[in-house]
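Example record

One chain of 613 residues, shown exactly as stored in the release files.
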Amino acid sequence: MTSFLSVVGITGLCVTAGPATPAHASPTELLQNPLTLDFQCSGCHQFENNPLAEDLPPHAPAAYFGTLMANAARDPVFWAGVALASDDYPGETEDCIRCHAPRAFLEGRGDAIAIDELIPPDFDSVSCEVCHRAIDDGVTPPGNARFVLDDTLVDGEPPRRGPWGYAEPNGPPLPPHPIIQDLEFLPSSRACGTCHDVTTARPRVDDQGAPIGVNFNEQRTYSEWLGSAYAQPGDDAKTCQDCHMALVEVPAAGCMEYENVGEFAESGARRHLMLGANAQALRVIADNSPGANGNAIDVALGLFDEFLATAATLDVEFPAAVDLSVGLDALGVRVTNHTGHKLPTGYSEGRVMWLEVTARYAGEIVWSSGLWDGAEIQADPQLRSYEGEAQRWADGTHNHLLLNDHWVLDTRIPPKGLVPGIETDPVGDRYALLPDDTWPNYDDHSYAFGPASVVDVTPEDATDDELELELRLLYVINTQSYLDQLRDDNDVNDAGQAVHDMYMDDGGPTPMVLSSAAVTVPLTGLEQPDPGDGDGDPGDGDGDGDGDGDPGDGDGDPPGMTSESSESSGDGLGGNEDAGGCSCATDGEGGPLALGGFSLLLLGIRRRRLART
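Predicted structure tokens for this chain:
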């Protein structure tokens, strides 16, 4: 097969453009040659996979229209956050618009603070040419959407940059616009770093409120990668694109003309799916934004689960058997981050990842930690969560991006090989540097559950008693309390109420499962039913849930704790509807299962059976 796509050199129409006119400083330095509208790009860049890839995810660049980047200007959470930020610091939201609606900024609408202040072309969001005209001028640092776009003309148009040069004069028609082959900046993580490091104007302060010499590092996704093993030459080396824009496994073309005539490059085609973890945002956008490409979004949503499974693994030290009269003294788990940045990364407000633990007998929860009640995580003393919590140090105000000046904690799991740095270090005492002076890309935790009083539901058969143990790594991007705050703190417009309503219409906050591990083990130590009852029902144990095995207050909460709610979410993520905190299942009236005392133990010798997913 002869290819008319060259992957080396700049030939044919690929002449080197003259010095670029940067468009990155302020609205007074706008493009002389405006961005092409995305629908014009899709005319050539939307097509079906070729026969070599018919069973693979779409590789046409127009798959991009199903991504959050392509819908960043439609995101209702973004606009609710902008409303709060504009109220806190009027005039400082231009950087938000730069990133989410570049065309609006470039055409002088960078002062927009509401979605209805944009015009229809602005909803192209991070449009095709924001990347394909981007250059590195060698001066502009990454971050805060300080993109530099080539504004020179070649044959009457600004050239677009991509992975290929078009070399053969006798081949299919050349693209209808000038091309410059870019094998350096466009495929680099530095290109992504243009927007994926964010710094605010607030000086960052320490725990005593003293400035530490840098402005507040609101997001550092690019810097996390840059300080990790993935940014270094070697076996671990990976760019952002290697995960989020995976190479197409078979020869493919980048435009319809070449795809139709079967002229495929052997390599270089990347999927423009830009998968991440915010599937619910895409659903909400598809349901509430008439201009969104619903078909492309549906394709992306169908690929989320497979992508999420690559983010992390759980290694669990499951016991070989459990005796309820003794309890479970050391359930050890290691969560390993396989991403090129902290897990989770990016915008921290409203986002939390955590471990959910359940131990079930006969469908009822005996022990648990980290249950989701349908809106929030139920608090318990053994809860293990991963989040970045920022505030305004002076008064503790949370979830106001432009007010933040202090990191209260940052327990997000570092990427592999992350070197120390004031803007990427964890905050708190959870992690300790490894002997090679890098942060671990894993977190070890151990659970301990005391004896439990549980009635045997099949006393006539001693061979069927089993305990189902399961751990899941869950992640929710917008908690109920965050959505409530976006609504309640908004004195500017109705964006907070609007986003709250949209997410409630979608069923409320919905956790995603990143990883899970489960095992069923033999169970002993069950109690026999009260012979005076005679109903055979698992409802005659102590079951007060107060952790002491004695009749208690019947509220179902673990010792010393109260839970927001003990209602199930109904989607399998909330656990048993009678479970509260880390206690056993209880209905507050002497329910079937009861939990004895518990204690936290360090991860011990790896002496238990190991299960991994």
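Notes: The chain is about 15% helix and 20% strand.
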